[in-house]
């Protein structure tokens, strides 16, 4: 199929809309549902991300995309009992592919609401059962087990979009887009992200364990498909905080760091032992936990939040929060361009960052390296900018 008519474009008033290729076939087949414009933007970017992760790590990979940026991405590192409980999947037997998606989805569950899920490998029943109960709009994968496909085709009354991606597809070498009647043309960003990224370590501390290399690859490959500016934190084989689309780089670092902090706080025993009333959905439970982590709520918000719980948990005191966050160490951080000031590392250190990749090339590189040395970080300059627009 060379062309597909869409319900509308980015917004409902933008009709008619379609996707097409000038020659050959579209790189996907619609197995269920009716994809929209944004669905396909997410699916195409997410599919390329998980392929890159699979190639770089050799592990099944998954991504959870929203509005053309990953809310989460991960590879199939086994989940601890703590994370299984924090992600609300402790009642399931997870395959490696399902584990990767549970990690990607659990990175930032609020942002993943209504996501596009992308899977690097065949979708098995285990993965389909995870997808079945999440609020998700699209799944993109190279293949589906017959039973898994039937589970997904039944989701949302048959409206759930299931895309079979062509594993042999590679985008054309030249990409074009038209904006306001002006056509832009450039070679696509086909830079291959691998161990070469770690070749120029510029700090006093130089040891990069294999787990840190894996996490840095996860963060950097996620950035390749994140709207810029962007900074990404990763740990234990998954994104734990992605700061996308900010005009100031330190705002990216703060946003991603705040998400990483919340990811870690969700593993506190007080969060794991929360007792919800009967009735709240998985999304409502995730939202309730997220509200619990906020420093304060208005009286109306407080009342709505308390209504979710059978026993209302006591909020963290500032000292408790600081003590728990101080336990998070060994986090990997990647930036899609250089750090112009040391304030990025000052913020990153508050969220347990130990390993850093950035492009280098700032007028203040010496100050940034000095900051990394102060915090005992290992930092490499890649010489590679990964803006994505």
Task: Note down, in words, how this protein is organized.
Helices cover 34% and strands 22% of the residues. The protein has a 6-stranded mixed β-sheet with strand order 3-8-7-6-4-5, with helices on both faces. It has a 5-stranded mixed β-sheet with strand order 12-11-15-16-17, sandwiched between helices. The chain has 389 residues and is α/β, with parallel strands linked by helices. Helix 1 runs antiparallel to helix 6 (210-224), helix 3 runs parallel beside helix 4 and helix 7 runs parallel beside helix 12 (343-349). The protein starts with a strand and ends in an 8-residue tail after the last strand.
Give descriptors for this structure.
389 residues; Cytidine Deaminase, domain 2; Helix Hairpins; 3 domains; six-stranded mixed beta sheet; five-stranded mixed beta sheet; 13 helices; 17 strands
Give me the strand/helix succession.
EEEHEEHHEHEHEEEHEEHHEHHEHEHEHE
The number of E-state strands comes to 17
CATH architecture classification of the largest domain: 3-Layer(aba) Sandwich
CATH superfamily of the largest domain: AICAR transformylase, duplication domain
Proportion of residues in helical segments: 25-40%
User: How far do the termini sit from each other?
Assistant: 27 Å
**Regions with pLDDT < 50 over 5+ consecutive residues?**
none
Helix/strand structural class: alpha/beta
Radius of gyration, whole Å: 21 Å
């Amino acid at each position: 199929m060379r062309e597909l008519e869409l319900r509308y474009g980015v917004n409902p008033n933008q009709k008619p809309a379609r996707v097409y290729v000038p020659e050959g076939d579209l790189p996907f087949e619609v197995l269920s549902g009716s994809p929209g414009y944004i669905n396909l933007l997410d699916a195409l970017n997410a599919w390329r991300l998980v392929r890159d992760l699979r190639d770089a790590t050799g592990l099944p990979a998954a991504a959870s995309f929203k509005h053309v940026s990953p809310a989460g991405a991960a590879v199939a590192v086994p989940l601890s009992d703590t994370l299984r409980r924090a992600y609300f999947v402790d009642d399931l037997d997870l395959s490696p592919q399902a584990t990767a998606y549970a990690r990607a989805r659990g990175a930032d569950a609020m942002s993943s609401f209504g996501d596009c899920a992308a899977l690097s490998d065949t979708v098995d029943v285990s993965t389909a059962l995870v997808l079945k109960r999440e609020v998700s709009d699209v799944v993109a994968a190279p293949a589906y087990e017959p039973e898994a496909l039937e589970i997904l085709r039944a989701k949302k009354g048959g409206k759930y979009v299931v895309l079979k991606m062509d594993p042999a597809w590679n985008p054309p070498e030249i990409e074009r887009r038209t904006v306001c009647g002006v056509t832009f043309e450039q070679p696509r960003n086909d830079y291959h992200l691998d161990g070469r990224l770690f070749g120029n370590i510029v700090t006093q501390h130089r040891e990069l364990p294999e787990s840190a290399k894996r996490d840095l690859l996860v963060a950097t490959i996620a950035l390749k498909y994140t709207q810029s500016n962007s900074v990404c934190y990763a740990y234990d084989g998954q994104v734990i905080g992605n700061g996308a689309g900010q005009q100031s780089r330190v705002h990216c670092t703060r946003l991603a760091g705040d998400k990483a902090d919340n990811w870690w706080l969700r593993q506190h025993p007080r969060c794991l032992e929360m007792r919800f009333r009967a009735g709240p959905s998985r999304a409502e439970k995730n939202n309730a936990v997220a509200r619990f982590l906020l420093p304060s709520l208005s009286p109306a918000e407080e009342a709505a939040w308390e209504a979710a719980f059978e026993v209302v948990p006591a909020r963290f005191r500032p000292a408790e929060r600081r003590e728990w966050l101080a336990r998070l160490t060994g986090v990997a951080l990647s930036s899609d361009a250089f750090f112009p000031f040391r304030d990025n590392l000052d913020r990153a250190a508050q969220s347990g960052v130990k390993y850093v990749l950035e492009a280098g090339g700032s007028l203040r590189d010496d100050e940034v390296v000095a900051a990394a040395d102060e915090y005992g970080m290992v930092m490499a300059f890649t010489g590679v900018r990964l803006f994505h627009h």
